[in-house]
Amino acid sequence: MSENITRTEFPREISAAVRRFAAHFPAVVVTGARQTGKTTLLTRLFPQYHYVSLDLPAQAQLAEEDPRSFLLGHPPPLVVDEVQYAPKLFRYLKVEIDANRDANGRFILTGSQKFSLMKEVSDSLAGRCGVLELEGLSTEELGDTFHEYERGEGIARVLVRGFMPQLWKDRGLRPADYFSSYQATYLERDVRQLLNVSSLRDFDRFMRATAVRSGHLLNKTELSKEVGISNRTVTEWLSVLQASNQITLLEPHFTNVGKRLVKTPKLYFNDVGLLCFLLGLNERSVTDSYLIGSIWETFLFAELRKYLASVAPEATVRFYRDQSREVDFVIEKDARTTLAEAKWKELPSRRDFRPLLAVQRLLPAARLPVMVLCRTAQSFPMAGDMLAVNGLRVREHV
Fold first, then answer.
1. What residue ranges in 104-242 does DSSP mark as E strands?
2. Which residue has better confidence, 383 or 355?
């Protein structure tokens, strides 16, 4: 066995929430992109449960065509993986739950196609289930493994590797090998099932064109022209990337400040490693890319999402932009508003803080200091109202 194999499982911050939901809801639904670790997490948390995967065509067919027999053959407590492949099963789950309404945690359901899954949940299991989303690993979940790797290999290799669990369990696995297989599986399996894409080659080009725009305002017309597809197709294909948890759209912050604010969302890929792969970048070329600032911002937004989902799911992250000012992250948590800007540099200048301070004056709830998330080894104050923050430790300051 290679010395690069990491033998231990990484603790997932979502674990406590899954257990809590199972104690209070008859069913728990865990969504997330493929290979983010949903099955590993749930089989570890609920080892005594029956487990069945609807990735297996025979099981999916039985669950869809004869849900009653499926449930008789797989009684609760039950984990059903990729449950979206059997939409008719949900009505029978509802009947089973209502027959014993006070018994919680009997069904744990997972799915990697969020929109189709949530439609069935809304139609049949409303009020009967708790819903959680699992992303790739966070720096906190990786712990010492991450910091040892980052110190030894450098931040460039971290960005290119991304945060899919398999790439950290087997650090001898080349990211390009992993992501080429991941993309092929994703295109062949999920894309064909989610919508009728006439040309997978066009969809591949669309993904790469979208990757160039990670960290930027979404411009559907620009995408349409570059890929050679209609605006309507752009909208459909973006919905596929969202439904399969590949991208997140960050909404703008709205406030009554008497200014004309941008209403268009910003687009981000969820995993920075997949983003680098789609951009054709490796550990030698990534830091020289003109897109490195957007790549760094994409990574930081993912870290913020994962952190807030685990400790404060009611918190929000948005961005601010008007005709003359822009701030990457407006973070609202515990009745406090924090302003942060991503900068791919080791030492920010006072000039980097000017937009933050200008927007802080427009938002009375925004607290000081404002932050630039950079690559400084140690966070340090720059005057009283400005803080340079090591982006790898952003959660310590939010």
1. 107-111, 129-133, 216-217
2. 355
Q: Is the pLDDT of residue 4 over 70?
A: no
Give the E-state strand segments of the chain in sequence order. 27-31, 50-53, 78-81, 107-111, 129-133, 216-217, 247-250, 266-269, 316-321, 326-333, 336-342, 370-374, 380-381, 386-390
Q: Please report which residue ranges of 99-138 form alpha helices under DSSP H.
A: 114-124
CA distances from 129 to 38, 118, 233, 320 (A): 17, 11, 33, 34
Encoded tokens for 154: 């450098």
Average pLDDT over residues 78-99: 94
Q: What is the CATH number of the domain that holds 273?
A: 1.10.10.10
Residue 180, pLDDT score:
94
Pairwise CA distance, residues 268 & 294, whole Å: 9
Within-domain flag for 304: no
Q: Are 60 and 52 in contact (CB under 8 A)?
A: no
* pLDDT digit string, tens, across residues 167-225: 999 999 999 999 999 988 877 777 776 666 667 788 889 999 999 999 999 999 999 99
The predicted-structure confidence for 71-82, as pLDDT tens digits, reads as follows: 999 999 999 999
Residue 320 lies in a domain: no
So what's the pLDDT on residue 255?
Answer: 67
Beta bridge partners of 316: 332
pLDDT averaged over every residue in the chain: 91
Let me know: does 369 contact 358? Beta carbons within 8 Å: no
Q: How far lies 21's CA from each of 116, 128, 200, 225, 303, in Å? A: 22, 11, 39, 45, 23
Examine residue 336 and state whether it is found in any structural domain, yes or no. Answer: no
CA distance linking residue 301 with residue 317, whole number of Å: 9
Can you tell me the distance from the alpha carbon of 309 to that of 132, in angstroms, rounded to the nearest whole number? Answer: 9
**Which of 17-31, 62-76, 145-159 has the least mean pLDDT?**
145-159
- The C-alpha angle 13, 15, 17, rounded to 5 degrees, equals 95
Is residue 364 one of the residues assigned to a domain? no
Label the pairing between strands 326-333 and 316-321. Answer: antiparallel
CA distance 125 to 133: 17
| Helix and strand element counts for the chain (H, E) | 18, 14
How distant, in Å, are the alpha carbons of 54, 186, 214, 252 from that of 176? 28, 15, 19, 33
Q: What is the CATH number of the domain that holds 118?
A: 3.40.50.300
Q: What mean pLDDT is predicted for residues 296-301?
A: 98
User: The domain containing residue 102 runs over which residues?
Assistant: 15-133
